[in-house]
């Protein structure tokens, strides 16, 4: 398994579960110095970072790109795959498609979390799920064509009323026409929704394509009460070989959060 740390590069956003903030070059340098294998980027759009510059920094610091987040599509533009307005859904698909192409240039998947949206008042749950599946089918096929996977993230009940548990995420993926979509096992969300994090990971198995590494309170691992040893065993049992990426609050500050994350990664995975 490989380590990654998140970098938020959206000026409009001042708080959130990302370790490093705003300065791409400095953040990648710090990630490299601590021994991270990769960084996960949260950008305002697909053209917010010049690919040539990112490639140069990746080579310079020996740090790969683990994934790219799409959440700015909702946070900044209000776009979701389940909006009742078909025009908005189409714009959401286009935004994510651009992020897929951006990430694919580095062999990195795009992540759909908040852009999945909700079943809003006046929209039946099954209708919202149909819209979500429609978007995932389109985007999953595009990811396949570009040699990457698309990562879908079940969120906790306070962030979406669609898919909250890995088990339901597997059911959704099995209903799709494309195998190009995998699940994100986010330990923070799972701590709220799953009866057993380890058992949920075992049951999801090969459907898991990415892991977000955070403790029960979304601080860096070691700052809460998540039973990490059991989770590590489950990941080993399903032969997970992807990234373990720190999407956690920068507590008490970004540098210490990054150090704590790497110490925990080394403790459990090395």
Automatic annotation (TrEMBL):
Residues 29-265 form the Xylose isomerase-like TIM barrel domain. It holds the Pfam family AP_endonuc_2. Keywords: Isomerase. GO terms for molecular function: isomerase activity. InterPro entries: IolE/XylAMocC-like, Xyl_isomerase-like_sf, Xyl_isomerase-like_TIM-brl. This is Sugar phosphate isomerase/epimerase. It comes from Larkinella arboricola.
């Amino acid at each position: 398994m490989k380590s990654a740390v998140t970098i938020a590069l959206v000026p409009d956003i001042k708080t959130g579960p990302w370790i490093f903030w705003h300065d791409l070059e400095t953040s990648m340098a710090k990630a490299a110095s601590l021994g991270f294998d990769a960084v996960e980027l949260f950008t305002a759009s697909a053209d917010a970072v010049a690919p040539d510059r990112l490639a140069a920094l990746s080579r310079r610091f020996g740090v790969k790109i683990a994934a790219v987040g799409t959440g700015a599509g909702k946070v900044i533009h209000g776009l979701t795959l389940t909006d009742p307005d078909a025009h908005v859904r189409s714009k959401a698909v286009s935004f994510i498609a651009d992020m897929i192409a951006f990430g694919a240039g580095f062999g990195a998947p795009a992540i759909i979390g908040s852009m999945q949206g909700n079943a809003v008042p006046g929209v039946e749950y099954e209708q919202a799920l149909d819209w979500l599946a429609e978007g995932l089918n389109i985007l999953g096929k595009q990811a396949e064509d570009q040699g990457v996977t698309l990562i879908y993230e079940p969120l906790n009940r306070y962030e979406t009323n669609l898919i909250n548990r890995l088990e339901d995420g597997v059911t959704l993926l099995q209903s799709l026409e494309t195998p190009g979509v995998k699940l994100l096992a986010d330990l923070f969300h799972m701590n709220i929704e799953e009866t057993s994090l380890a058992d949920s990971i075992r049951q999801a198995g090969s459907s898991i394509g990415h892991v977000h590494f955070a403790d029960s309170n979304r601080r860096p691992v070691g700052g809460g009460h998540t039973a990490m040893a059991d989770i590590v065993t489950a990941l080993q049992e399903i032969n997970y070989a992807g990234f373990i990426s720190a999407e956690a609050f920068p507590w008490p500050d970004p540098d210490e959060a990054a150090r704590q994350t790497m110490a925990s990664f080394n403790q459990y995975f090395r």
